[in-house]
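CO-FOLDING WORKSHEET

Operator: S.A.
Ligand of interest: pyridoxal-5'-phosphate
Run index: 465
Mode: holo prediction, single chain
Checklist:
[x] sequence pasted
[x] SMILES validated
[ ] output reviewed
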Amino acid sequence: MQYISTRGGAAALDFEGATLAGLASDGGLYVPESWPRFSREDIAALAGLSYAETAVRVLAPFLGDALSGAELRELCETAYGRFSHAAVTPLQQLDERHWLLELFHGPTLAFKDVALQLLGILFERFLSNRDSHLTVIGATSGDTGSAAINALAGRDKVDIFMLHPKGRVSEVQRRQMTTVLAPNVYNIAIEGNFDDAQRLVKAMFGDAQFANRFSLSAVNSINWARLAAQIVYYFYAAVRLGAPGRAIAFSVPTGNFGDVFAGYAAAQMGLPVARLIVATNVNDILHRAMTAGDYSVGKLTPTPAPSMDIQVSSNFERLLFDLYDRDGDVLASVMQSFEASRALTLDDRAHTRIGELFSSARIDNDAMALAMRHASEEMGEVIDPHTAIGLSAAMGADLPRDIPVVTLATAHPAKFRDAVERATGQRPLLPPRVSGLFERKERYETLPGELQAIEAYIAERATET
Ligand SMILES: *Cc1c(COP(=O)(O)O)cnc(C)c1O
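OUTPUT RECEIVED:
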């Protein structure tokens, strides 16, 4: 399988190349040159398989010959062996037709572990094949940073420098990053907000000399391997609820459009997906795009679901690529004009095609709190603010009664326990796998939000290639 850039101006790469590169050199994102197809029989044959074995079957066509079948199986078993639930991503029935897909049983309590645990192992394997070294740089508002650090701590041939906005991530999130004392992990608290941190990371990638000197790489959801790993749980859940014989709807708490794009990929591969519900908070650029064709950047509003406080959803570009008939030249000019004007109007044809599979909902803070209370009082489940946005959208969706609706539970309620307590009166306990978090020693550096200072700090500690 080869991967091509959405902007048509970068050489095609194989799975290993696309994984290590992250972003394409023309500024586009890598996508498979065509979608692999699973027949009804292929899907039926997934029934009863373990999560790791399902991952092997779903991922194999994307990997091509990057790994042998036995190697892929060994890596999936290692990655998913680190989850605290034997089913890895268990389904929970809420009422007659609503289900939760719990994606938070990994080491850092958010769904990002599902992909990053595998990505960490893939990085190490591919780098040792090549005998090369990578410096991973990222900016985080909390969940990506902790999941990436957990996945890469102590691994050979990769160092990770993670920037977070000082004082603006929750204490659980900060400690999940700063108490990891492995020598290849560097936490940097930036004086500034998340946008400042992200701008600094972009500037480092844009500094070609610096980027080449340290072989910079990215682990945010622009990385294709991360999205591929997320396709697996759509198959795993759908098969348990009756696929291929029955179509399933999914409601996805959405920020950067990575998780829901994996659901789109599953549908392209032949999984019977009745509907993908894009659930946003008041930062609703995707909801405006889906309902009115208006993809224009608004003002960022902080909410109790911070991992969805996003204005530009990077992975939307991957959907646009398909909507514009996979024409990289057209998409390059569409994206350039979006980047210049911060606005894009979808044409009628693209807008109509989105509506064939997707719907959307904008859930404000009151509706989110109401969904947390409803889940706790009527369904016996304490859920986190992000999951509550998904559930609220799921319950409001206009769908035939016989379609099961699966809401992706993207974070453990204890990760956002202040917001959960405010809405439900219950304070969720931290699960045993993160107990001791508040006693452990922290290590991080505080730096001003200035490119020079950060590059100097990294240059002193990273490995030159
Ligand atoms: C990252 C995240 C999301 C948003 O996922 P995207 O792939 O960015 O759309 C939702 N909920 C939680 C808890 C997250 O950490």
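REVIEW:
Residues 23 and 400 are 40 Å apart (CA to CA).
The first strand starts at residue 2 and ends at 5.
[x] output reviewed
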